[in-house]
Amino acid sequence: IENNKNPQGANGSPSKSGNNGQEERILTTRQGHPVRDNQNIRTVGNRGPATMENYHFIEKISHFDRERVPERVVHARGAGAHGVFEAYGKVGDEPISKYTRAKLFQEKGKQTPVFVRFSTVGHPSGSPETLRDPRGFAVKFYTEDGNWDLVGNNLKIFFIRDAMKFPDLIHSQKPDPITNIQSAERIFDFFSGTPEATHMVTFLYSPWGIPANYRQMQGSGVNTYKWVNENGEAVLVKYHWEPIKQGIRNLTKKEAMEIQAKNFNHATQDLYEAIERGDYPEWELNVQIMSDDEHPELDFDPLDDTKLWPREQFPWHPVGKMTLNRNPEDYFNEVELAAFGTGVLVDGLDFSDDKMLQGRTFSYSDTQRYRVGANYLQLPINAPKNKVYTNQRGGKMSFKTDFAPGQNKHINYEPSVLDGLKEAPKPAKEYTPRYEANLVRQAIDRTNPFKQAGETFRNFEDWEREELISNLSNDLATCDKRIQDKMLEYFTQADEEYGRRVREGIQMATEKMMKMKKEMMGTDGPMGNTSGEEGV
Ligand code: HEM
């Protein structure tokens, strides 16, 4: 009996081969033993007690007891799909090789397999997909030179620009450590001490904070990266995914609540069903390019991820298209165990000095060694599709050795003259940036925290601004006056009208809350939601 055949056949339909597939579908243990009774544990008489040598039962139940790994500390709730990336080979009218030597981009029509995971950020793995939250947009490219992960979000910017602050940001967004309830006051307490977050807060509390689903949203690498060409010359780049076929759609709070009343999984379901019916979502990958220097002429630092690079000055150049065309066969193996990280680049792509990017790059693989295990890169979803030959051995759940053909299998070190693995040849021109500065702990100079927040506020359509004001006002009305005052100061600095409208909104929401409280005190006693009306 072959125990590793897909019981549904390769394409999901019942297997047709021999004996109507009966023999091939026989249940076995992981030891390959046929299971002759899957209903009854072995007992002394049919009323028990049970014996300790119930091997099949103990294997079955103890595997079940271990069916979960810790959920991601952020981005726990997600959905994923496989697909393909097709390169255009150009940046505008120029060959892309002028900017990068990364092989996946060079030839027009060159295809690279991808796996994508979309997610919400702050909420646990079973939470509704209608909650206000940035959305994660992580893409793994299985290139001929190894994997490239582009780990981004839908809002193009972020709340903070220094990785030191990330645990504090996330603690403020997660539930209160005593009540285990998310609290608007804790969230805005952090934001009121973090002026650089004002721009992202402006996006998040607008309808852009609740994309209609995963197909109809943009994606962005957010952090600044570099491209390196054959001459070892670099430029700064930012990446953006544009949903070219599906368009962009965001929800009002009311629309989101209506969906949430009926369905916690609408975005996962939407993605899965679209792919099943052959309506494959597509995104075009765009890059913005800047020369590799500090750009003193700009009123922001190109390495500051709280800022957009203005599109008029730094146009979006389409460089390829991604199509998602295959659902996972096993959610856990493919989506839950997928491990993306900002350190995973291929030749021709490089890091910038963006401090968030540097901090992120440590965090991802660190958490994955804890969440999935030391050998997380041996799992099929994470392993590259090109050849892997390493001297790494051992560790929990190591199940194969990366031998090269003809390699001396005794040699798991380098250098060696005894037919071990050898270093790859160096590129003709390496990129070797030069640094000269004092080692310091200091913020960047051009912080400019409010200007782009004001521009984003003014660029919104009327209904988006109205949603923004109402969402902010309702949550801020539940906060300490000191927090309200600080946030109002920030919004006013961004745009006078923005500040004024939120101030009026807070007043109205407070009066409404007082009235409701009075009514309830008169009837059922003091009750009510003091943590704002919705999750973030
Ligand atoms: C997931 C850390 C900033 C996008 C994660 C995870 C960690 C983390 C620990 C869980 C990974 C896992 O368990 O596999 C950090 C740190 C940051 C940071 C320390 C800042 C210093 C950002 C930013 C973005 C982002 C700015 C958006 C551009 C994502 C995405 C995921 C993720 C999309 C989910 C990946 C997946 O689907 O598996 N982050 N993050 N993160 N992060 Fe970040």
Automatic annotation (TrEMBL):
Which positions, given as ranges, span the membrane?
A: none
Q: Which reaction is catalysed here?
A: 2 H2O2 = O2 + 2 H2O
Region annotation Disordered: where it falls in the sequence: 1-48
Lineage here is: Bacteria, Pseudomonadati, Bacteroidota, Cytophagia, Cytophagales
The domain of life for this entry's organism is Bacteria
Q: Where is the composition biased (Polar residues)?
A: 1-21
Q: Name one GO molecular function term.
A: metal ion binding
- List the record's Gene Ontology CC terms alphabetically: cytoplasm
- List cofactor names only: heme
What this protein is called in its record is Catalase
Give the record's GO biological process terms: hydrogen peroxide catabolic process; response to hydrogen peroxide
Its EC top class is oxidoreductase
Active site, per annotation: 75, 153
Binding of heme, residues: 364
Q: Would you identify the family this protein belongs to, as annotated?
A: Belongs to the catalase family.
**Role of this protein:** Decomposes hydrogen peroxide into water and oxygen; serves to protect cells from the toxic effects of hydrogen peroxide.
Q: Which UniProt keywords apply?
A: Heme, Hydrogen peroxide, Iron, Metal-binding, Oxidoreductase, Peroxidase
Q: Which organism does this record belong to?
A: Pontibacter ummariensis
EC number, UniProt record? 1.11.1.6
